[in-house]
Amino acid sequence: QVQLVESGGGLVQAEGSLRLSCAASGRTFFFAAMGWFRQAPGKERDFVASIDQSGGRSNYAESVKGRFTISRDNAKNTVYLQMNSLKPEDTAVYYCAARYLGDTKYTSWGQGTQVIVSS
Questions:
Q1: 8 Å CB contact between 94 and 20
Q2: Model confidence over 3-37: pLDDT tens digits?
Q3: Integer angstrom CA distances of residue 66 from 41, 45, 58, 69, 71
Q4: What are phi and psi of 92, to 5 degrees?
């Protein structure tokens, strides 16, 4: 069993920064990648960023390239999302997720952490 717990969300003004953390516990040996998704009120869940567990290759949504950075600390089973130059449109609940070896979809999810960016 795997559990993901996000933290670091909060209220911040436009152009400000936040760093989100996602701590994984349980059996994490078969993780292929970890990622961040977000869901704004009344909208569908969108991909934000991901990082491979082996090699550390990262991917980003076009809307956050140059502003957000995903990183990981395998020794701590933790993934981070550094968010800079935040915009009001970044307001959403941010979810941490994990994908397993052999899978094409993310199947383990955290409970989410709220990020509100005021203008």
A1: yes
A2: 999 999 999 999 999 999 999 998 887 889 999 99
A3: 24, 21, 13, 8, 14
A4: 180, 170
